[in-house]
């Protein structure tokens, strides 16, 4: 009469409804993590998320051990793997927290029927969102396509529940069931080991998530409304990867914000809204399963994208000659994360200055971000490209020099990641090609040798982008 609890995108013990239900059942509890890269449509995790997953599972395993429970690791298609495990553990019940990505939903639906056919009780619980995506509807009964009314509806209709406590004790399943060894999954990079910067930056796991939240509420989030745009400031929460792996829930964030009076102001309202954007992205994905591969606005199907592998590689490696773009791409490569303002700048640069398809950028982010998320990544790429829901208009083309000057005025961000130009003055830092020869010489910069010249001219690139855009508008 074992209860089998599944872990997937919810690598935590607190506020885990499936785990609580299992603990409350008073029956032996077995716990398993299933790595499913085989069910139809499942998108294999990128490298940075595999690194994170390895460490997060290590942390979860340790935490479960404090309750006397061993985490069983299995790999394979969800329905088949869980059915086999249920049989081996003699489970009469299987509990899990819901997923909302379309392939995850399909795989879980299939699993549920397989379990029920075998006479096993199968129950799912609310997962990692404040809202269940089918619950919030527009006046005409459809899904939302615009953020502001979505946010209004969310605030009005969703009253976030109090987060559930971590079970104090439960009855562990004592049977002898083997699982894979985590090392056998080879989630970590070997040669080259590119994860040094990730190790320095992050502490995957529930305790790491909690520590980030506390630091943010304890002064780290002061001035969030304006500081969140300053790329060289540590002014955002850094919670995205913890949220993506379910090491913390939005309910826990809401409760923490509610509990502190000084956090009631504008800063934290803005912060809540950002978390609201995450909800909106999931809402979009739930209702538009092809968000990562199809233009939300089909006018963009006719867009004349270029293909240029060399330009793509220069962008990926942070060798575009635009310091703010290069700093951002190197931050991504070194730490597995990039500041939100910087994400908008590099995405705009790829799509509008280089004319490359947003999907090529989305794929690079998918592989390199520790927070790569099936909803937020494509939704934001489409937002920048202009093809998305409630998107920025295509003709709004960021000028990387002005963005740098405005959001990195003292050049802290650029100097941290593009050390070869760190000795340039603030005045020339964001456009070294405008610096007098003498200033370059003094700063030890030799354009085209120690640091690239701009790979495209901003003005010309802008005009090309606008005429490409006109071609699809005229085709209407
Ligand atoms: P904070 O400023 O502390 O925000 C708190 C939380 O709100 C974040 O952790 C995140 O969960 C959510 N959030 C904030 N901004 C957004 C947003 N624009 N869209 C959705 N959720 C948001 N975010 C991801 O989590 N995964 C992605 O794969 C991802 N890809 C992106 C791609 C592009 C091109 C762009 C422009 C943005 C992308 N974002 C993505 C959104 C945003 O950049 C990150 O969520 C944010 O930078 C994470 O840092 P933080 O946790 O310190 O954010």
TrEMBL record:
It is an enzyme of class 4 (lyase). It holds the Pfam family DNA_photolyase. Its EC number is 4.1.99.3. Signal peptide: none annotated. Keywords: Chromophore, FAD, Flavoprotein, Lyase. InterPro entries: Crypto/Photolyase_FAD-like_sf, Crypto/Photolyase_N_sf, Cryptochr/Photolyase_FAD-bd, Cryptochrome/DNA_photolyase_1, DNA_photolyase_1_CS_C, DNA_photolyase_N, Rossmann-like_a/b/a_fold. Residues 1-130 form the Photolyase/cryptochrome alpha/beta domain. Its cofactor is (6R)-5,10-methylene-5,6,7,8-tetrahydrofolate; FAD. It comes from the Bacteria. GO terms for molecular function: deoxyribodipyrimidine photo-lyase activity. Gene3D superfamilies: 1.25.40.80, DNA Cyclobutane Dipyrimidine Photolyase, subunit A, domain 3, HUPs. Belongs to the DNA photolyase family. This is Deoxyribodipyrimidine photo-lyase. It comes from Nitratireductor aquimarinus.
